[in-house]
Amino acid sequence: MSMNIFPASRRFRFTLIVLASLTVMEVAHSQTTNSWIAPSNGKWERVNRWDDGLPSVTQSAVIISNATSKVVTINARTARKFPNSLVISNLTVSAPDGVNNTLFLHNTGTIALHILNALTIGLIPDGSPGGGAELISAGVHADC
C-alpha cells in the first residue's frame, strides 16, 4: 500500500500553478519581436545584427526598419545553413522618411522565405514608401 503525503487538493493546486506559469511564459515568449539593430548592410543569419538573435517562427514579428539605409541579404548560404530562420510569423521592411531599407533574396534555390501571417513592405507609419524587397532566383511564400 502506497501512501501519498500530499492531499489530492494540494496536488491539484500545485499542478494548476505550474500549468499557469508555463502558459504565461509561453505567451510572453511568443510576443517577442526581433528587430534589425545594425546600422549597416549585412547577412540575415548574423545573430549580432538582431536584437533577439536569429529570426525564428517563435517571434511574433521580424522587423527591418531602423534609421539608416541598408540591405539585409538572404542568399544560398543562408538557405542551406539556416533554413529554420526562413520560417517566420510576420515580416515588416520599412524605414523612416529619407531612408531606404531593402531585404535582398538572392539565389536561394528551392528554399523560400516563408511568412506565416503578415508581410508589410515599404510603408512607414504615415503611409509613404520607405522599404523594399528584391528577389533574384529566390522565392517568398506568404500565407497571409
Describe the 3D structure.
The chain has helices spanning 8-30, 76-81; strands at 33-35, 42-43, 61-64, 70-74, 87-93, 101-106, 113-121, 131-136, 140-142. The chain has 144 residues and is an alpha/beta fold. The strands form 2 sheets. The chain has a 5-stranded parallel β-sheet, with no helix packed on it. It has a 4-stranded parallel β-sheet with strand order 2-4-6-8. The longest helix has 23 residues, at 8-30. It starts with 7 loop residues before the first helix and ends with a strand.
Notable traits:
144 residues, 5-stranded parallel beta sheet, 20% helix
Question: What is the overall silhouette?
Answer: globular
**Main sheet overview:** 5 strands, parallel
In angstroms, what separates the terminal alpha carbons? 58 Å
Number of helices: 2
Cα-atom Rg, whole angstroms?
21 Å
By secondary-structure content and strand pairing, the structural class works out as alpha/beta
Could you give the order of the helices and strands?
A: HEEEEHEEEEE
Count of the domains: 1
Number of strands: 9
What portion of residues belong to β-strands?
25-35%
Strand order of the largest sheet: 1-3-5-7-9
Q: Are there runs of 5+ residues with pLDDT below 50, and where? A: 10-30
Mean pLDDT value: 79
Helix content: 10-25%
Secondary structure topology:
Layout lengths: L7 H23 L2 E3 L6 E2 L17 E4 L5 E5 L1 H6 L5 E7 L7 E6 L6 E9 L9 E6 L3 E3 L2
Parallel strand pairs: 1-3, 2-4, 3-5, 4-6, 5-7, 6-8, 7-9
